């Protein structure tokens, strides 16, 4: 499989503080790579280095199989990006903003402007100035500007940040379309884990500047197990009933009031009936599927996935 982004021992120091430490990241052709981490973890810094906006202190970056250098003009021409807050000529229309961008980039395919506006559903914005756009429209214009030069790679830093549910759905569908129909590889960061779960093929998790996990979403789904969670005032009693009356042993006590059952061979109603019959007090019992959010917070807490 062709590698689009590869970093090795990538490190960045600001004011004597190491904000990115020895990051080894691999983004393959055709992937949507979800880049996750808390605020200040180093996501934006890594993306800026990959887009050649800032230089690494140490380490190597390869884009499309070639080392990234100050002379990598042809390679950088294959990249579109939105990093931090996009800035536009607010008094001009969407089309005029794209025309100026193409002129600056030395890209002279006028049909690409129409195609980009059509893809992001801004063809009908006419002469409306960008200052009158909603936040969702501005984000779509930012993506139009990023794709107008027909890039092979998109680097998107928090593109759905601040959007309402409708705007988030529009961007989600747009990114899926760009990836599946146009073959664009996408590196995307986001705080909205549920959205990354819906679109990503692979995730990388960075904490305090260190990439602590890089894994395909399919493997997460295989690792994570669905479970039944029980809230009770006496976990010892409830656990004893489950073990001795239902022969359930794949149990984890998470707190003085919370139990998870990973053996799903016995129906939830049978479990509930047995607990009540033998005197356990149940405050709640429900079936839950593990999510990317569960996986992320398990990593944040330094643990593994329950099995």
Description of the structure:
The protein is of the alpha/beta class and 307 residues long. Helix 3 packs across helix 4, helix 4 packs antiparallel against helix 5 (135-147) and helix 5 packs parallel to helix 6. The model has no long low-confidence stretch (mean pLDDT 92). The chain has a six-stranded mixed sheet with strand order 7-8-9-4-10-11, sandwiched between helices. It has helices at residues 43-50, 73-76, 94-105, 110-119, 135-147, 165-182, 193-199, 217-223, 235-245, 268-277, 292-300; strands at residues 3-14, 17-23, 26-28, 32-36, 58-63, 66-67, 79-82, 153-157, 185-189, 202-207, 210-216, 227-232, 251-255, 258-261, 282-288. The chain starts with a strand and ends in a 7-residue tail after the last helix. It has two domains: 3-219, 3-Layer(aba) Sandwich (Rossmann fold); 226-288, Alpha-Beta Plaits, CATH 3.30.70. The longest helix has 18 residues, at 165-182.
Search tags:
307 residues, alpha/beta, Rossmann fold, Alpha-Beta Plaits, 6-stranded mixed sheet, 5-stranded antiparallel sheet, 27% strand
Q: Specify the structural class.
A: alpha/beta
CATH topology of the largest domain: Rossmann fold
What is the average per-residue confidence, as pLDDT, rounded to a whole number? Answer: 92
Strand numbers in spatial order across the main sheet = 7-8-9-4-10-11
- Give the CATH level 1 class of the largest domain: Alpha Beta
CA(first)-CA(last) distance: 31 Å
The ordered H/E elements are EEEEHEEHEHHHEHEHEEHEHEEHEH
Number of helices: 11
Number of strands: 15
Largest β-sheet summary: 6 strands, mixed
- Total discrete domains: 2
| Architecture (CATH level 2) name of the largest domain | 3-Layer(aba) Sandwich
CATH H-tier superfamily of the largest domain: P-loop containing nucleotide triphosphate hydrolases
Which percent range describes the beta-strand content?
25-35%
- Helix fraction by DSSP (H/I, runs of at least 4): 25-40%
Low-confidence stretches: none
